């Protein structure tokens, strides 16, 4: 798999080199990661076993929770293990695999969030045609397209990284392998490749965020014709979705829509969308959703 590179492994700098802080990082992020897995696993099992959560919204929430758990797993375990490890090395092949997996599940999360917004748009703006438009077959096709789109995106990112020659320093100033830190280590002019990265990841983030914002504006505008109870229920659902969108897209846009420059705060911003958002999503969707809470009580 190694191409145009004399480097066979990288050293991950991590969040800090301070031994005391590393122990705290191990404890805190181990707790966060286990809570993320537990929260998303509970949602997946609840939706899978509940007869009341059969609507398209929960069908998409199932895949969002699955993507969250996988997305967190691409980065969190490495950060946790490296916090107590003296040798923070990652092989070239493992690094490339991490790049692919992180972008695959991150992109999957973006597409599923768009599908959830589309589902709410149809439910609120086209209520009479909802069951026809959002049939089970249509939902399955949309999810498959999301998987395919995520695979195309992450394959393109991986292709760009594989073209980079690494012949000098191999210390990645990050806690996982990502494009911007790797571009800094390449022994070639990376300006053109960085433009491609921004036009790929950056464009997906920005365009998706704009689409989601427009969809929620349209939804809010259409709610003026609904009853007070209908408005309250729709607003509660849409507010949950919108909180998740802002929490996820804010950090992503900050990281992927700018030129090839890195800031010290980048790692903490990355922590927020790779570990923080997958942890918060189950809380947001369960605490603000009576149907999910009732289904969980029945499951227990």
Automatic annotation (TrEMBL):
* Keywords for this protein: Cell membrane, G-protein coupled receptor, Membrane, Olfaction, Receptor, Sensory transduction, Transducer, Transmembrane, Transmembrane helix
| Residue intervals passing through the bilayer | 24-45, 57-80, 100-118, 138-160, 201-223, 235-256, 268-287
Q: Which residues form the G-protein coupled receptors family 1 profile domain?
A: 39-285
How does the protein's chain sit in the membrane according to the entry? Multi-pass membrane protein
CDD domains, alphabetically? 7tmA_OR4A-like
Record's subcellular location:
Cell membrane; Membrane
Q: Which GO terms describe its molecular function?
A: G protein-coupled receptor activity; olfactory receptor activity
**GO CC aspect terms:** plasma membrane
Query: Which PROSITE patterns does its entry note?
Result: G_PROTEIN_RECEP_F1_1, G_PROTEIN_RECEP_F1_2
Biological role stated in the UniProt entry: Putative odorant or sperm cell receptor.
Family, according to the entry, reads as follows: Belongs to the G-protein coupled receptor 1 family.
Q: What is this protein called?
A: Olfactory receptor
């Amino acid at each position: 798999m190694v191409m145009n590179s004399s480097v066979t492994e990288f050293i991950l700098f991590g969040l800090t080199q301070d031994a005391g802080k590393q122990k705290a990082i191990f404890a805190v992020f181990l707790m966060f990661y286990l809570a993320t897995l537990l929260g998303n696993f509970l949602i997946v099992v609840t939706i899978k076993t509940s007869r009341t959560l059969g609507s398209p919204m929960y069908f998409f929430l199932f895949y969002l929770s699955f993507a969250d758990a996988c997305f967190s797993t691409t980065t969190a375990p490495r950060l946790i293990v490296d916090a107590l490890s003296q040798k923070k090395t990652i092989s070239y092949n493992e690094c490339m695999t991490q790049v692919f997996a992180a972008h695959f599940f991150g992109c999957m999360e973006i597409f599923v969030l768009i599908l959830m917004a589309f589902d709410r748009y149809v439910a609120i703006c086209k209520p009479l045609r909802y069951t026809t438009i959002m049939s089970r077959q249509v939902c399955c096709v949309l999810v498959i397209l999301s998987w395919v789109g995520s695979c195309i995106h992450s394959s393109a990112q991986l292709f760009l990284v594989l073209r980079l020659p690494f012949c000098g320093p191999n210390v990645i100033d990050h806690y996982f392998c990502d494009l911007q830190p790797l571009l800094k280590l390449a022994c070639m002019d990376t300006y053109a490749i960085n433009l491609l990265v921004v036009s790929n990841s950056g464009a997906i983030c920005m365009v998706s965020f704009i689409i989601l914002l427009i969809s929620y504006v349209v939804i809010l505008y259409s709610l003026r014709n609904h009853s007070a109870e209908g408005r309250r229920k729709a607003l509660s659902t849409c507010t949950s979705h919108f909180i998740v969108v802002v929490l996820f897209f804010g950090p992503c846009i900050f990281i992927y829509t700018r030129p090839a420059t890195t800031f010290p705060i980048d790692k903490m911003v990355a922590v927020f969308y790779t570990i923080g958002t997958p942890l918060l999503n189950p809380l947001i969707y369960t605490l603000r959703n009576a149907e999910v809470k009732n289904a969980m009580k029945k499951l227990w």
